[in-house]
Give the backbone structure.
Amino acid sequence: MEEKIREKIVETVKEVMNIDITKLESSRKINTISEWDSFNNLMLISKFQEDFGIEFSVVEIENTQTIADLFEIIEKKAKKS
Amino acid sequence: MINKKIKIAILSSYTAQNLKNHLNSHLQKNGFEPEIQFGGYNQYNQELRDKSSWLYAFNPDVAVIALSSKTFLQEVEFEILSKGYEATLKECKEKISFLLDSLSQYSLAAKIILTSLDQPLYSPFDLMDLKMPDGIYALVQEGNNLLREFAHKHPGIILLDFDRICSLVGKNNMTNEQLYYLGKIFLSELAADKLSQELTYCIKAIYGEVKKCIITDLDNTLWGGVIGEEGANGLQLGDSTIGHIYLEIQKILLNYKNKGILLAAVSKNNSQDVMPVFSENKEMILKKDDFVALKINWELKSKNIEEIAKEINLGLDSFVFLDDNPAERLEVAARLPMVEVIDFPTDISKLPAILKNIPAFKTISLTEEDKKRHEMYLQERKRSERQKQLSVGDYLQELGIEIEVKKNDADSIERITQLINKTNQFNLRTQRYTKEQVEEMMRSDNHIISSAKVWDKFGELGLTGVIILEKKKEDDYFIDSFLMSCRILSREIEKQFFIEALKFIGKNKIKISAEYLPSPKNDLVKDFYEKLGFKLESETEKGKNYSLELTRVRKDISWIKVR
């Protein structure tokens, strides 16, 4: 289950951003990745919410700063739903 | 459908990048190959004014200025109480005037689609707002008035009713608040899709991709019931639930007719059963003369449609077909794939809404020619009846054709542009130009645009021909465009028109080169320049090149009088 969620996240980021996040440090801050375009970031977040059937609050989105944060919040929410 | 490359710039008062996928997909479905670029968030004024901006380098065919009240007017709903109406209105007007001034400075040949201001859902005056002379509604209305006055003065600008689009989507569904507060993305996916669809309608209309004639069935399409069984006065039309729906259907079709879309009917019936409906049934909105053709017989509908196409000289792709019988729709769709077949609903109460919103009939301008088109086709019917009775020579003499050719006629620029973009069959190079490009050519010393108006004893045929001569050097011209409306062919008007157009050059000794570029539709004129006496210089897959040394005035056509 967890593996599947991780796979799906990696895949989605690749699709929207054209970035392989498995090659990045998990503590890496998203806003320091130059290819991580801010418009695409929002599209990505919408897509996660749709694909996993989950909802983020705007505060949660603001607090998602590193790649590890991203995995954590999606996994936490997706497991609940 | 021809694949058309088109460059679109989107300038907006919000982050609009999520329009890209939707607009791409709508345009591709309609035969366009779009290239879309976006301006910076709220940078439209600078981008329109700065000739070194990306916009000028991109040089788009269509520029979309996408506004929304929330992002463009900004904060009015929070200022109107503290600052007062007058001061708030003044600021709004300044913002709008500045934008309109930016648009005036934008000097490229692009068509501009400007979205109007939507009425916001929130007003501090809530239940009172609408009746107040100084509420939010009144303020936004004032803003839209400025936009309308400007767009009305500049025919190159299309003002798209954004409030209507918001209503279609539902104002509560317009924005995903999260994305708006995080990234100033104003349009939800649903809204982006709807706006893209409306933009596509505009772009199709700009490029003249519109249909010209609706062919309708009669029984259970224009009225309820079968006339062969119920008789002319037994139909459901008028004072009943079903009867009211059919009345509305007829009224919608009459509106189309009055704005220049032709009506024709094809019905499997006995003609003597149907005709009394026009003379006896008082409820009928549509009269016999509202139809340019009535084919009432037991032939295949596809065959009848082909005959109508021939009679009124339109390509099959100019037709929309309306019929309640799925078998008939299938037959026409299978045999005549160029004809657009309307998806007829199983519940007749759904038909009026469908008819009101036929994308293929959406237009951005209405010329005098459009409004008179129906009359002209009726005249045409009388002409062809007379033609059958006389020899060709006698017929042409009797017609009493008159032609008036004008040079760079600015008053007819709308119609000239329309003809340039709509004419497919008699069109030697099929070059399309926007109104701004036509204007530019009229002003330039290197081009002469001649346009021909034609009359005969049956009436006015209108402005039906355009020739664009491009001056290459002194006494050396190239025929950039030569096109004529099909309804006046086979009377040699084109020859006299050519003679008159050459007179504008003002010299007798000139060299003229010309070109025929084949398109899927202009086979009709593939040997036209040969017939005019041109010498064929070269012929390739791409087309044919010609030249003509003119040393004397050419002989006039005897049956045509020049005004």
The interface with chain B takes residues 38-39, 42-43, 46, 56, 58, 61-62 of chain A (CB under 8 Å). The longest helix of chain A spans residues 2-17. The radius of gyration of chain A is 12 Å. Helices of chain A lie at 2-17, 38-52, 58-63, 67-80.
